């Protein structure tokens, strides 16, 4: 129980601390207005910003149609 409360407190603080971007895509990406040149847009964040992820972390879609 104490661990759950501590985890919730840390999660809340990470959202409040200025300079720490909102995390997305299994904590592999960051929500930003624009992605940097070494990142790819993958999905939208809850805030409407772009979820910017390093290209090697973006899942590849299968082309198999069978």
UniProtKB/TrEMBL annotation:
**This protein's record includes keyword Transit peptide:** no
**UniProt domain Beta-defensin: residue ranges:** 23-52
Could you tell me where this protein is found in the cell? Secreted
Per the record, the domain of life is Eukaryota
What residue ranges are annotated as transmembrane?
none
Cross-referenced Gene3D superfamilies: Antimicrobial Peptide, Beta-defensin 2, Chain A
Per its UniProt record, what InterPro entries does this chain match?
Beta-defensin, Beta_defensin_dom
Using the record, list the residue span of the signal peptide; answer none if the entry has no such feature: 1-19
Known role: Has antibacterial activity.
UniProt lists the family membership as follows:
Belongs to the beta-defensin family.
The protein in question is named Beta-defensin
Name of the encoding gene: LOC101990458
């Amino acid at each position: 129980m104490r661990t759950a409360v501590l985890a919730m407190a840390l999660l809340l603080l990470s959202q409040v601390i200025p300079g720490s971007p909102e995390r997305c895509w299994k904590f592999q990406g960051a929500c930003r207005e624009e992605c940097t040149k070494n990142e790819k847009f993958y999905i939208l964040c809850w805030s409407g910003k772009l979820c910017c992820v390093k290209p090697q972390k973006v899942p590849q879609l299968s082309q198999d149609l069978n």
